[in-house]
Hints:
Elements lengths: L3 E6 L10 H11 L3 E4 L8 H11 L2 E12 L2 E9 L6 H31 L7 H5 L8 H10 L6 H9 L9 E2 H10 L3 E4 L9 H14 L3 E5 L5 H14 L2 E4 L21 E2 L1 H11 L2
Parallel strand pairs: 1-2, 2-3, 3-5, 6-7, 7-8
Antiparallel strand pairs: 1-9, 3-4, 4-6
Amino acid sequence: MKNLVDLHMHSTFSDGVRSPAELVAMACDLGLKAIALADHDTVDGIDEAVTAGAQCGLEVLPALEFSVAFGSYRDVHLLGYLLDYHDEGLQETLKEFRDRRERRGEAIVDKINEKLVFEGRSPISSAEAAALAGGALGRPHIAQVLMSKGYAHDMQDAFSHYLIPCDVPKRYFPMEEALAAIRRLGGVAVLAHPTTISTDRDTLTGIIDTLCGMGLDGIEVYNNVCNEIESAFLKAFAEKKGLVWTGGSDYHGIEEGISMGSGRGSMAVPYSCVENLKRVKASR
């Protein structure tokens, strides 16, 4: 994977199952030139990843994936690359989100326990799940506990039988606040897996046009949601609009058939994406 990168992955600090150092070790073994750790609404794992990357010659880009609301759309994901993740204001804002996320995880466990008791099974402990998390308690950590108890065969089984029906709504950043925060912190704002918002091209390009007027810098062209035709369309649209384009596996370590660096098998993101992100940042 010489000169290839993976600019979207998650660790135990949000909803991944591998530590930042483990992700770096995997990327080094694959021969990737750079990665971006983009945990959901937290930057707490970045220092660990950067330190581990320096030890094996892997470039680690600091990143953050905001959970965003935009108009009637909920759970839109916005990536902020190369931002000042040590900023005190950001840390305070993310701490509030982390606290809310922790309470959400505990509320999900409570609902799951109600279902388990109804099924004649012993309840699980949120502390067991929290012990698996490097940061805030996430749903994959709860799934791991369900699997260890024999209540679910695998991740998919845990989600379909417990985590999805027992879900609790998340809180989202308003889009304008997330874009403004990334800009204030000297970062580059990239819309993650755009087709999760809409697969209708007219609708999607209209949304991206609006976001460009609000400060969007780029779009994630290569990801695990787009097919090759959609990726080609998004890349052409990004180039037409003068946007940077990126790509990443969105690796969590729980998705069947998804690998770091190659996604579902055919993804190949060039290092030039990193250079373009740096170019945008330097132009500020």
